[in-house]
Amino acid sequence: MTTDLVRRLVLVRHSKASHDADSDLERPLTPKGVTLAEQLARQLRQRLDHTDLLLVSPAARARQTAQPLRQRLDPAEVQVHEEIYSHGVSGVLDLVAAGARSARSVVVVGHEPTVSALAHTLHDTDDDLGTQVSFGVPTATAVLIDVASRWEDLAPGGGHISEILTARRH
């Protein structure tokens, strides 16, 4: 899938978060989570030549994970959507279909189990990468998916996981 028609969808699970907050939405990244988010942003910068759209959950941990992505990837547009937090796979698919329009590269910063479920749903083959995401993805992980269709036509089996990046824990 290396034609000009290929789009890239990157699903990012937020980095390591604290459990010390008044609500789940307010949970911030731990100091280690901040470091891992920066590492993941550096890794993604090496793989993405451009980013058109960055879609982010409103949860504090997702917004904090998105900060180094925004700095390193320099997306043309950034949007925060509650649907990423609360509407699961179909909510993220609807957002991408409606919001990406002419975008070639879309990065979504969200949560489990949505990240792994969506990656597994979109993956077009039964292989090691598909199996890996079916068990869930760790924090500070990005799943890179090549998509040959228009965003609005994206459906189960409509993408191919090309790589899974996880920030290294030292």
UniProtKB/TrEMBL annotation:
Q: Which residues form a coiled coil?
A: none
Q: Hey, what's the signal peptide range on this chain?
A: none
Where does the source fall among the domains of life?
Bacteria
State the SMART domains in the record.
PGAM
- Quote the InterPro entries the UniProt record gives: His_Pase_superF_clade-1 (IPR013078), His_PPase_superfam (IPR029033), PGM_Phosphatase (IPR050275), SixA (IPR004449)
What NCBIfam families does this protein map onto? sixA
Its recorded name reads Phosphohistidine phosphatase SixA
Q: Which organism is it from?
A: Actinomyces lilanjuaniae
